[in-house]
Specification:
Helix content: 25-40%
GO cellular component, one term: cytosol
GO molecular function: phosphorelay response regulator activity; transcription cis-regulatory region binding
Number of helices: 8
Protein name: DNA-binding response regulator
CATH topology of the largest domain: Rossmann fold
CATH superfamily of the largest domain: Response regulator
Shape: elongated
CATH architecture of the largest domain: 3-Layer(aba) Sandwich
CATH class of the largest domain: Alpha Beta
Largest sheet: 5 strands, parallel
Order of helices and strands: EHEHEHEHEHEEEHEHHEEE
Structural class: alpha/beta
Radius of gyration: 19 Å
Pfam family, one: Trans_reg_C
Keywords: DNA-binding, Phosphoprotein, Two-component regulatory system
Length: about 240
């Protein structure tokens, strides 16, 4: 049976709120609306949304505090932040608090729809627990298996789901195990000329990537920090990349 996604929008600007509602309804989603974080929390008490779109700068309780409250009780609900061009620090903090993604205002409608679809895909299609059924089978001796075409990643034979940026960062590091990549180089390759990102953005994405690809916390990490320089793929692990 098809389950229609319910998207909660928490936005204090009426024009943007109505625009987001229209966009999501065009995609056949049910929409719940709130103009404050407090109102959003009340809605969640009665109806659990499939996903949440929230502005960072809300009157009263901030979007960041709202996200923290939601994640403390319903960590499974993904949150997409809306942020202004000057909210770089808040965007990074939002990711650290558990938000899945963010988009900068003014936003591109097609990009917004695409990001929502990616988030919902993770909700309705959780990652597989093993590598069965792959067209290209991971080498049993490989610690990291990357299928570039399918954009699939297996760590110790267990599939993990990465965001586009996380996948691209892992691909960059795995392309030369042992080589140290500076934050500046990672920014140039992954974010190109985006002036709205900083070194801290790299740190946050690396941190979340590490969490997802760590299946044996007692073993050395697959992605290592070289203090004061940058990051590298552990030179002692075996990486298999299938193009």
């Amino acid at each position: 049976m098809f389950v229609r996604p319910k998207i909660l929008i928490v936005e204090d600007e009426p024009d943007i709120l109505n625009l987001l509602e229209k966009i999501l309804q065009e995609e056949n989603y049910d929409v719940l609306k709130a103009m404050t974080a407090e109102a959003g929390l009340e809605i969640i008490e009665g109806t659990l949304p499939t996903a949440i779109v929230a502005d960072i700068n809300l009157p009263g309780m901030s979007g960041l505090d709202f996200c923290k409250r939601v994640k403390s009780t319903h960590p499974e609900i993904p949150v997409l932040f809306l942020s202004g061009l000057s909210d770089e620090f808040d965007k990074v903090l939002g990711l650290e608090l558990g938000a899945e993604d963010y988009i900068t205002k003014p936003f591109n409608v097609r990009e917004f729809k695409a990001r929502i679809k990616v988030i919902l895909r993770r909700v309705f299609n959780p990652p597989a627990k093993n590598a069965g059924g792959l067209g290209s089978s991971p080498d049993p001796n490989a610690n990291v298996f990357i299928d570039v075409l399918k954009r699939q990643v297996f760590i110790e034979q267990i599939e993990v789901t990465l965001t586009k940026k996380e996948f691209d960062i892992l691909m960059l590091l795995a392309s030369r195990p042992g080589q140290v990549f500076t934050r500046e180089h990672i920014l140039d390759v992954i974010w190109h000329d985006d002036a709205n990102v900083s070194d801290r953005t790299v740190d946050v994405h690396i941190g979340r990537l590490r969490e997802k690809i760590t299946v044996h916390p007692d073993k050395p990490p697959h992605v290592e920090t070289v203090r004061g320089v940058g990051y590298r793929c552990n030179p002692h692990i075996q990486v298999q990349v299938v193009q």
